[in-house]
Every structure is written in C-alpha cells, then in structure tokens.
Design brief:
By secondary structure, the protein is of the alpha+beta class. It contains 16 helices and 21 strands. The strands form four sheets. The protein has an eight-stranded antiparallel sheet with strand order 3-2-1-13-12-11-10-9, with helices on both faces. Strands 20-19-18-17-16-15-14-21 form an eight-stranded antiparallel sheet, with no helix packed on it. Strands 4-8-5 form a three-stranded antiparallel sheet. The radius of gyration is 31 Å and the shape is globular.
C-alpha cells in the first residue's frame, strides 16, 4: 500500500515538473499573441523599426549628411539606439549614440524652460509677472514699448526683440563672457509690441536663464546641472559654456561639418556662447533621451524634474496659439500636428543640427542628432515618418472661405535684423505667396516651393512640396480690412514687405549696386592707362584729375571693404561686433575722404575749362560715388 502511494506521489510530482512549464509556456504565448504589438504613432511596428530606419537613412548618410545618432523611446524604453555614418571622417570614427557627443543647439532652451517651471512650482517665478521686476533696474536699455514683458512672452518668443547676430557665438572659448555681460553686449532692439508677434529669439531664452540666476543665486549651468542633469542621471551632457565641468566630453565630441557638394563636406567650427543657455548643451543622444523620458513618466511614477504632476501637466499644455486650428506653443515647446499631438524643438549651430520630439499621449520620443549644420531631410523627414502627420481635410463647401488671391504678396520673416547692415540679408529670405486657385496657394522661398490648401478660413496646411517647409508648418493669415497684416507660422511669423522694400525697389537697388561695383572696379584700370599715357607724353596730372583719381580709388576701396565684410560674415557668421567694427569705421573714413574729393572737384571744376567728355567723366565719378554712399546708408553699412 505504501509502495502504491509513493508511486502515485512520484507520478504527480513528475507531472508537475514536466507539464506545468509546458502549460505556462502555452499560456504566455497565448497572452502574447493576444497583446497588440507596439507601434510608432504613425503605425510602424516596433519589430520593423530598425529595418525601416536603416532603409530611410541609406538615402542620406554619406550623401547629404555625414553622420547621425538616432534614439527612439516607447513607454520609457529605448526601442532603437543606433549611429549612422561618421563622427569624424578623417579618423574614420563611427557615430555611437551612447558615446558620441553632439552640440544640441537650441534644444538647450527646453532646459531653460524646465528650470523656469521648477521655480514656478516653488512660487518663486510668476509666468505673468513683468520680467523687469526680476531684473536689475535699467537692465534692458533698448525697449520701444512700455507694455510689460512676461515670462510667457519669453517662452512664446513674443517679447518683440529683433534678431541680433553679433555676440551670439564664437569659434573659441577664450571669447566667452559671463551670461550677464553677454546679454548686455547682445541686447537687441525691441521692434514689436510684446505679445503680438512671434519672432524666435535666442536673447529671450538667455534672459529667462539670467532671471533663474537672479532668483536662485546660482550660475545657470550650476543650477541646471544640479536640478536637471543629476536628476535624470545624465553623465554625458553639459551646458557649461566651456565644458570645463565635464572635459571628457571633448574627447568624444564629433567633428562638425558643412556640405560643399554632393557627398562632399568640409569641417566647421565648434560653438561657444556667452548667452549659452540658448544653445550650448553638448551631449550624447541617449542622454537627451533621458530628458525625454523624464517628461513622460509612467502612470504610476512621477517625473524626477518636478515635485507635482500638475506642474508637468501645465508645462506640456498649450499656452499660446494665434488660431485654434494651427499648432501653438506649450511653455517653450512647439506643437506638432502628427497622428497624435507632438511637442518638439529643433537645434542648429555652425556645425551641428538636431531635433527633439515627444508624443506624450503615446509615450513616444524621437531624438535625432547630426554633425552637420542645416540638416533637414533626416531631422524632419524621418521624424514625420515615425510620428505621422494629421491628414489634411478640406471642407466640401467653399462657404465662408476667402479667395486665396486676397492673400498674394511678399512677406518677410519677423525673426530678422532691422538695425545694421545685415538687414539686407533678410530681404533674401522673403516668402512669396501666389494663388493656384481659390483654395490653394503656392509658397516660394530661397528657390524652394510648397503648395498649401485652405482647410478653414485663412488657415492653410501643406499639400506637397520641399521638406524645408516642415519648419514652417500650417499657417494662419491675419486679415484686417481686406489686407493681410501678419502670417502666423511655427517659430516665426511673417509680415508684409513694406512698399519701400518691395521687389521693384530691390531690383532697382540691385541694378544700381551692380553699376557702382562695375564702375569702381574698372575705373582704376582706366586711371592706370591714363597715367601711363600722360607719363609718355610728359603731361602732369591736373589738380582736378588728381582729385578725380582720389574719388575713384576711394569708391573702389569702399566696394572692396564691404565685399570683404560680407565675405567674412558668410564664411563665419558667429562673430563679435568688435571683429567687424573696423569695417564700419573704414566706411566712415573713406566716405569723408570721398566727400572732400567731391568738394574740391566742384571748386576746381569751376575754375577749369573742360571739354564735354571731361565734364561727363567727372560728373559720372561724383554721381556713382554718391549713389554708392546712398546704397550704403539705405542698407545701413554705417551701423
């Protein structure tokens, strides 16, 4: 009997050992089969994600872009972390998303807004308070309007500041100054009334960071390191303007490049900034992914960045829009119309470009860092493929839809320089709009174009066109008394080009400029020929001829001086004003010499008997010089 019982027990135990694992395996398999496979917001299965990205990247890496690091998050887990191309072409170092350090550019601004919201949570900053109450008295010296500027205005880029290119960045860390001094050197003129025009502003973000310094008593990089980087466990990123708090990052920093042709690239300069909070973070793609994860904690967890869930919710909630039918701004994030609402921010420096995109509803994030300036196809093209786009739905009826022909015109970006010689550059960035039919328009800028369809009154969304227009997004036309007063678009509005800067005006000025340049480049050779001929005939130059020669050579020197100025700015746009002020001083000195020459020519001309051809020649020299000076005044080459 005991034997039989023992045998039965052994049989049961054996059955449990053998059959239970089989049953559990079957159960897990069944559950897994029933669970839906995770996908990107656009619908790409996570299991197919690497193959999809690989296939996309092969069209660009080594052809239009040197290298890129891609990190994709789903439900707080990294589902893809991969490097493509080279971190350094010469040394043949491949990109590694865990190790390769990139400049994040303007994504750094999100860290400013995070610190601001931390202080809002603590009751130390009021988003609606006039920021002058947080600043030293008289700190802002170029305000045009008495209206208060709030922290929300800084977040929304609606404080009204023009774009000021000088003192924004340097190619050497030796030129970097303190944040306070950098702000004073680079303070732009306020050209718009606060709250009315979106004009992307580096100064605004850095000013907000300076307020954080004032409130906390810490330098901004110290506060950000303690309250953001350490909180999210980031060890391979730094916002220090000289990277002196994490020098090992320099050892792994990618070389930055500029494209010079198809599959051709040249090394570009690293970026060092006095106003560093607006764009100086260096770090890896996986460290940036940690920041994305902290913004989208699991339901049962809290964000390490904030004490209260309500603060994070407020941070990611829309805080500004020009129209409910277009994306707006969420406390510094730019909204994106994907399959689900996205929040994004791009970055661009002299040598790197980046894109940060989160979809909180899907707990999904895309991090793209490239070591090439101005890259578009991967940053925007791949992101769009992963997060999708909201379908463009067109109303069946034309009722209440204005005719697109009412909106035709040329518009200049609100993010621009108005004061100084660089204002002429922004005229080249003008957006031209023409009607295709009563509902559709074509937008042209810098030789690229896209077609937009009207989806609701005065709201247009992209149908097709160049990837460049992904940076513009859906647009809204502000119309008053039948005239367009403003176009609202992502990151920067557009304003009607004034009559004084219309296309005919620009063409006339271009023709005059060409005539002046040709005259003052050819004339010195004519003077040389005349001098040789006089020497052979042993006829000394008359006083009038000498003053005419001085005038011509002065005009030639002015042309060369300003050509060199423009060339220097095109080669390296990140300069301090002290680097180019010499050109401005030379303009003043040469202009004074030219005016003196004209005065003496007029005096001597009255006392000298001249032939008609001589009178014409001397008058032509004076007229061409005066036209040149007129153009330099109009285009502010004396400022």
């Amino acid at each position: 009997m005991r034997r039989l019982v023992r045998k039965k027990i052994v049989s049961i135990v054996f059955s449990m050992i053998v059959l239970v694992p089989i049953f559990l395996s079957w159960s897990v398999t069944s559950v897994a089969a029933e669970a839906p496979e995770k996908k990107t917001p656009s619908g790409i299965p996570i299991s197919d994600l690497e193959g999809f990205v690989d296939n996309y990247m092969k069209d660009y890496i080594g052809k239009t872009t040197v290298g890129a690091a891609i990190v994709i998050l789903k439900d707080n887990q990294i589902v893809l972390s991969k490097g493509y191309g080279d971190a350094d072409i010469v040394k043949n170092i491949p990109v590694d998303p865990q190790k390769t350090v990139f400049e994040w550019g303007s994504i750094s601004k999100l860290f400013v807004w995070t610190t601001v919201m931390q202080l809002v949570e603590q009751g130390k900053i009021d988003l609606n308070e006039d920021i002058r109450n947080y600043l030293p008295e008289g700190f802002l010296t170029k305000l045009k309007y008495d209206s208060p500027i709030t922290m929300l205005d800084l977040m929304h880029h609606t404080a009204g500041f023009e774009d000021y290119i000088f003192e924004v960045g340097y190619s050497s860390p030796d030129k970097v100054k303190s944040l306070e001094e950098g702000l004073k050197l680079a303070e732009p003129v306020q050209v718009y009334k606060p709250g009315e025009v979106v004009a992307y502003s580096n100064f605004s973000a850095s000013l907000a960071a300076y307020i954080v310094e004032r409130v906390t008593g810490q330098e901004f990089y110290q506060y950000a390191s303690e309250h953001i980087f350490s909180k999210i466990g980031s060890q391979n990123a730094s916002i220090h303007p000289k990277l002196s708090d994490n020098k090992k990052l320099l050892e792994n920093k990618a070389t930055g490049y500029k494209p010079t042709g198809k599959s051709q690239f040249t090394e570009s300069n690293a970026l060092y900034i006095s106003m560093y909070p607006s764009g100086a973070i260096n770090g890896t793609a996986e460290d940036l992914a940690k920041f994305a994860s902290a913004l989208m904690p699991k339901e049962d967890e809290s964000s390490p960045l904030f004490q209260k869930k309500e603060t994070l919710d407020e941070f990611l909630t829309r805080s500004y829009t020009a129209n409910d039918n277009i994306p707006g701004n969420a406390h510094g994030f730019w909204e994106y119309e994907g399959q689900k609402r996205g929040l994004t921010h791009r970055g661009n420096t002299e040598a790197f470009s980046s894109n940060f995109h989160i979809v909180p509803e899907e707990n999904f994030a895309v991090i793209i860092l490239t070591n090439q300036t101005g890259e578009v196809d991967i940053r925007y093209g791949l992101t769009k493929e992963l997060v999708g786009e909201e379908p463009v739905t067109v109303a069946a009826s034309n009722e209440n839809m204005p005719d697109a022909s009412e909106l035709e015109g040329t518009y200049t970006p609100a993010q621009r320089t108005y004061n100084g010689f660089l204002n002429f550059y922004y005229e080249l960035l003008s957006l031209k709009i023409t009607a295709v039919n009563d509902r559709e328009i074509q937008m042209d800028v810098l030789g690229s174009s896209a077609n937009y369809i009207q989806t609701s009154p005065y709201v247009f969304k992209k149908l097709k066109g160049d990837t460049l227009f992904s940076t513009i997004g859906p647009i809204y036309f502000h119309v008053k008394n039948g005239k367009v007063t403003q176009i609202s678009a992502s990151t920067s509005d557009y304003l009607p080009v004034s009559t004084g800067k219309s296309t005919p005006f620009l063409i006339i000025h271009l023709i005059l400029a060409i005539l002046c340049v040709v005259y003052f480049i050819i004339s010195p050779f004519v003077l040389l020929f005349q001098g040789i001929r006089r020497r052979r005939k042993k006829h000394p130059a008359s006083p009038l001829q000498r003053w005419n020669s001085i005038l011509i050579l002065t005009g030639t020197a002015i042309v060369i001086n300003n050509f060199v100025l423009v060339a220097r700015m095109l080669m390296v746009s990140l300069r301090g004003y002290s680097e180019i002020v010499g050109h401005i001083i030379i303009n003043y000195g040469l202009t004074a010499l030219g005016v003196v020459s004209i005065v003496f020519m007029l005096v001597k001309g009255r006392k000298t008997e001249l032939t008609k051809s001589q009178k014409f020649y001397y008058k032509l020299s004076m007229v061409m010089f005066l036209i040149l000076i007129f153009l330099l005044i109009v285009w502010q080459f004396y400022r």
